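Record passed on here:
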Amino acid sequence: MNFWKIFFASFAAIIVATIVSTFLLISMGVASLATFGLSEMHNTKNSVLCIDFAEDIIDSPQHSAVSSVDIMNMNYSQPLTLRQVLTAIESAATDPNIKGICIRPDGVGSVSMANLEEIRAAILKFKQSSKFVVAYADGYTQSSYYLASAADEVFLQPEGSFDWRGMALSTMFYKGLLDKFDIDVEIFRPTVCRYKSAVEPFFLTKMSDANRKQLEVLANSVWNTVCEDVAASRELKKEDVMRYAADLSISLGEDALRYGFVDRLIYEDELYNLFDSLGVERDSRGHSNDISLSEYITANSFAATTVTVNDNIALEFVNKPLMALIYAEGDIVDGDDYVDGNIFGTSLAREIRQARLDERTKAVVVRVNSPGGSALASDVVWREMVLLQQTKPVVISMGGTAASGGYYISAPADLIVADRTTITGSIGVFGMMMNFGDALKKHLGVTMDSAATSPNALAPGMFNGCSEAQRAAIMKGVDRVYESFTSKVAEGRNLTIEQVYNIAEGRVWSGSDAVNIGLADMNGGFTEAISAAANLADLGTDFHIYEFVSPTSPFESWINSMGMVMAREFGLDYTLAGEQLNEFVESTHQLIEMQGIQTLCPGELKIEL
C-alpha cells in the first residue's frame, strides 16, 4: 500500500511539475510578447535607432519553441537574424521617423566577427542618407569599437575603459587529462593533412608548428582587416593603429582621445543634449525617443516570407519571380532532423531539392556558417548542390565559418561570396576513436571479453580499440574521403588538383585570403550575395525573397498557439507570428561523440576580438 501511495504521489508531482513548467514557458513567451507589443509606442516621430546588442544576432531563423529560454536567470531573449538587422538599417535610412542611429554596445548579446563586419558595412551605407550616426559606451571592447568606429562621432564615458591590444587564437589541450585517466586516443589523419588541427587537443599538449603557423596567418589577416577599417573611418594611419595595440598605448579614455580613437569624453546626459540638437524629440518622461533594433524590427515586420519544408512554395499571392534563401548553420551531422545548432544532411538536401524543383524559384542563395562535420552528410548535401547548380544560379554567402564540410557543400556553387573575416578552407579529413578499456580496468576494475568468428569480427569501439588490420581499413577510408574532397573542390572551383593540394592539407584561411587563392570569388556579405544571385538569374530588382524554416514539433506548435491565444487575451499585438521560440537546450557536437569520418575545421575556432 505504501508503495502505491509513494508511486501515485510521485507521479502526480511529475505531472504538476510538467504543467507548471509548460505554463512558465508560456508566461515568459507572453512577457516577451508584451515587450514586443509595446514597441509601437516607441516608434514615434523624430526618434533615434539604438543598436545595443541586447539580443544575439544569428544567421538563420531558429525553429524550436524554447531554446531562447534562460532557465538559470528565468528570462527569455529572442535572437535577431542578420538579415533582419541589415533590412532594418537599410529601411531606417529612408524612414522619416528615424533621425539617426546611436551605437550603444552595452548589451550582452553575441555576434560573430563576420556578422559584425556586415553590420558595420550597412551602417557605412546608412551614412549616405545624411542622417547622423553616433556611438557611446561606458567602455569599449575591441569588437564593439570596431563597429563604433563607423560612426560620425565616437563618445566615451569620462571614466570609461578602452581595450585595444590585438587578437589571439587559443586552443585548450586535453592530452594531460586523458593520460591521468589512462584514456587512449586513436587518430586517423592523412599525413598530408598536417594543418587539420581539430584533433590536436587530444594527442598533443600544445600547438603543432603547422597549426601555429596557420593560426598566426589567420589572426594577422583578420587583424589587418580590422585595423584597416578603423584607420579609414578615423582618418588614421593603419601602422599607427596597429602600433597602439602592440604597445598597449590605449587603455584609458584620455588615451583614446589623445590618439584619435574617440572624439569626446561625455556623460550620458550630454549625449541626450546632443540628440536634442540633432532633432530627436523627448517623450513625456523627458527621455530621448529611442527605439531598439528588436522593437524596430518587430514594429515593421522585417522578415522574408518563409516556407516550411514540403510546403507549397508557389506563394500565389506573389506575382514575381522568386529567390530562395537556405541556411546551413551548425555542425554537419548524419540523419534527418531539425535541431538548432546542427545541419542534418538529409534535411538540408531536401530543402535544396525543393528549391531546385520549384519552377518559380529562379535563383538560390545558401548562407553557410558551419565548421563542418560528418563526411557522409556533407557528401549527401554536395550532391544536391551539384544538381541545383545545373538547374539554376546558386550563390554561397559565407558567414563566420564555412570550413571543412562547410566548404565541401559550398564548392559546387556558381559564385562564393565570403566576408573578409570568414574562416574557410580546412580542406581535409580525420577520424578519431577514444579507448576507455584501460581506464575502466585500472580505475574501476571493469573488463570486457568476447567470442568471435574471426580476428576482426569485433568492431572497433570505445572499450577495445582497434587491431592493425582495422586501423589500416579506417585509414583507407580516410584517405579515400580526402581524395574525393579535393577532387570535388577542384571540379567545383575550376582548379587543377595540384592547385587544390597546395591550398588544402586541412589549412584554414580568412575570407580575404580565400579570394586571393581561388577558394572564393569575392568579398562581401549577405547583401552582395543576393545581388549577385539576382544578376546571374537576370532578375533585376523585381523579385521576391523567401527563406526556408524548419518545421516545428506538435509540442512547439502548441506552445506557439497558446502564446497567441494568451496574447489576444491580454490585448497584445502578436507581431511574432512568423517567429518561433527556440529549443530548450542548444545541441553541442563533442568530438568524443563523433562517429565515422569527419571533415571538421579546428575545434571551437572562432574569430573574437
The domain at 305-428+523-550 is CATH 3.90.226.10 (2-enoyl-CoA Hydratase; Chain A, domain 1). Residues 26-43, 71-75, 563-593 have pLDDT under 50 and may be disordered. The longest strand covers residues 153-162. DSSP finds 20 helices and 25 strands in the chain.
